[in-house]
Write a structure and sequence with these properties.
This protein has 209 residues and is mainly α. The chain is built from eleven helices and no strands.
Length: 209
């Protein structure tokens, strides 16, 4: 099974599929972009011999997978950010009706201006729909692109590296099987739950009040 899937990861189409999924899941968070990245990384590891302990030869494939996922993540963030920036009164009213977006916008208001505040953008990338919330909130709040873009890039790279590493090392330790894929996905879900917990914690200003 993994041999046939591994042949697909050697085709440019797998990178296109992964990139499109990651790009559009900022608008449709239910898209299985994380599943695709992990599965492709697992198959790439199987094709490289990682699952049998051989010296891996699929590093360029893994590198291309990481770059396509990270780049698509940043592009998707920017599209959502720009749409929210130019959204007008209708989008402002829609966001005002969303408790999650309103809370994120309030926290981002001062966070992105601080040297460490952009960590919220990185953390949100791992939370379900967190990327969407932060990108739209940053655009609606009219945060400057130089405040948002570097953190979006770091978030995209961190998420892509983590997802690819889960698939690759899961195959290396557990073998290239559905078991390793499921364990890797559980690790990704675990990171998402931690991110949700951190994002839901009151801001320091609220705690002091």
């Amino acid at each position: 099974m993994w041999e046939s899937v591994g042949s697909l990861t050697g085709s440019p189409w797998i990178y296109v599929i992964v990139a499109l999924s990651v790009l559009f899941d900022v608008f449709v968070p239910v898209l299985p972009s994380g599943v695709l990245v992990i599965t492709a990384a697992t198959a790439a590891a199987a094709g490289s011999g990682a699952a049998t302990g051989a010296v891996p030869h699929g590093v360029p494939d893994l590198l291309a997978l990481t770059l396509s996922a990270a780049t698509a993540s940043v592009l998707g963030d920017l599209v959502a950010y720009r749409l929210a920036w130019r959204g007008g009164a209708r989008l402002d009213r829609a966001i005002a009706r969303s408790r999650r977006l309103t809370t994120a916008q309030e926290r981002l208001g001062g966070a992105l201006a601080r040297s460490s505040g952009g960590l919220l953008v990185i953390i949100a990338r791992f939370a379900p729909a967190g990327r969407s919330v932060v990108s739209f909130a940053a655009g609606t709040a009219h945060r400057r692109v130089r405040e948002f873009l570097p953190w979006s890039a770091l978030a995209g790279v961190a998420w892509a590296l983590y997802s690819v590493a889960l698939g690759y090392f899961g195959a290396q330790w557990l073998g290239a099987s559905w078991l390793s894929t499921i364990v890797s996905l559980l690790a990704l879900v675990g990171a998402g739950l931690v991110a949700v917990y951190v994002m839901r914690r009151p801001a320091p200003e609220s705690q002091e009040a």
